[in-house]
């Protein structure tokens, strides 16, 4: 059963306040791939599907020239940046998407919004395809981990805003830190729908990821990816 009617307002919330330590090129959302910032690419992919776009920026920085959005100042962690974004909108449904995932297919956005409207919380994710092992204390092969039913979580993640805000405020009260927003919902016992994501939705985290993004961008921009 749908929670919301057809006229529900949807906001895209983009945490873009990270420092990009692992990439090493300064604030990562501003890094350009084939002439467009990572943030610009993410915002442009979301904008056609939502009523407004909000971006959390590092303190003292303004939006890159290729982005139009309302802004808030982010926090010291992704979690506090998302909380600042949540407090800045009254949309009924929110889509949280990393600025650092620039190749976002419209079909994934639509599927996450539909699932969030249906059950209140959803995330893009991909079934794990590699063999998984937990390293031993010395860093060598430790324990084989069955990959059956294991998914790698991506963004966008979609939520009823009231549900996600309550989960964030409970986490703040408890001093609980999660690496994503769906994890905060699961912590409170809420259901989260796994929506098939996309291999092209990888997060630009390391220099190797940036090289992949630079290779993919011309094909993506030409509509051929
Ligand atoms: N204090 C923070 C930290 C992260 N993010 C955002 O959360 C997303 C995912 O974070 P990540 O890829 O880890 O980015 P960084 O924190 O910038 O990277 P690093 O950990 O290498 O410094 C990014 O869009 C990033 O800008 C944020 O808004 N506020
Ligand atoms: C939200 C996320 O992208 C889902 O995979 C991920 O948890 C972010 O992790 P990071 O260490 O903040 O990049």
Please characterize this protein's 3D structure.
This protein is an alpha/beta fold and 225 residues long. Helix content is 30%, strand content 24%. It contains 6 helices and 11 strands. The strands form 3 sheets. The protein has a 7-stranded mixed β-sheet with strand order 5-4-1-6-10-7-11, sandwiched between helices. It has a two-stranded antiparallel sheet with strand order 2-3. It has a two-stranded antiparallel ribbon with strand order 8-9. Helix 2 packs across helix 4 (161-174). It binds cytidine-5'-triphosphate and the ligand C[C@](O)(CO)[C@H](O)COP(=O)(O)O. The site of cytidine-5'-triphosphate (CTP) has 22 residues, from helix 2. The ligand C[C@](O)(CO)[C@H](O)COP(=O)(O)O binds at residues 78, 98, 153-155, 179-180, 203, 205. InterPro entries: IspD, IspD/TarI, IspD/TarI_cytidylyltransf_bact, ISPD_synthase_CS, Nucleotide-diphossugar_trans.
Write the layout of secondary structure elements.
Layout: E1 10-15, E2 32-33, E3 36-37, H1 38-46, E4 52-57, E5 70-73, H2 78-87, E6 93-96, H3 106-119, E7 121-127, E8 132-135, E9 141-145, E10 151-160, H4 161-174, H5 182-187, E11 193-196, H6 207-221
Helix pairs in contact: 2-4
This protein binds cytidine-5'-triphosphate and the ligand C[C@](O)(CO)[C@H](O)COP(=O)(O)O.
Residues 15-22, 28-29, 56, 74-78, 81, 98-100, 203, 205 line the site of cytidine-5'-triphosphate.
Site (Positions MEP for the nucleophilic attack): 147, 203
Enzyme class: transferase
Family: Belongs to the IspD/TarI cytidylyltransferase family. IspD subfamily.
């Amino acid at each position: 059963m749908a929670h919301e009617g057809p006229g529900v307002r949807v906001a895209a919330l983009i945490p873009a306040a990270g420092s990009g330590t692992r990439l090493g090129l300064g604030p990562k959302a501003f890094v350009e791939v084939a002439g467009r910032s990572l943030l610009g690419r993410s915002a442009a992919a979301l904008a056609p599907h939502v009523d407004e776009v909000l971006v959390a920026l590092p303190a003292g920085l303004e939006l890159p020239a290729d982005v139009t959005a309302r802004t808030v100042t982010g926090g010291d962690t992704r979690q506090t940046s998302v909380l600042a974004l949540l407090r800045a909108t009254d949309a009924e449904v929110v889509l949280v998407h990393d600025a650092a995932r620039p190749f976002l297919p419209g079909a994934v956005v639509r599927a996450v919004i539909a699932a969030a409207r249906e059950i209140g919380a959803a995330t893009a994710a991909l079934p794990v395809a590699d063999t998984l092992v937990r390293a031993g204390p010395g860093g060598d092969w430790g324990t084989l981990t069955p990959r059956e039913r294991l998914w790698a979580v991506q963004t966008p993640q979609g939520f009823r805003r009231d549900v996600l805000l309550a989960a964030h405020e409970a986490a703040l009260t408890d001093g609980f830190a999660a690496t994503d927003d769906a994890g905060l919902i699961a912590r409170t016992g809420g259901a989260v729908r796994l929506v098939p994501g996309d291999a092209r939705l990888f997060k630009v985290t390391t220099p190797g990821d940036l090289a992949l993004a630079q290779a993919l961008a011309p094909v993506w921009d030409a509509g051929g990816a």
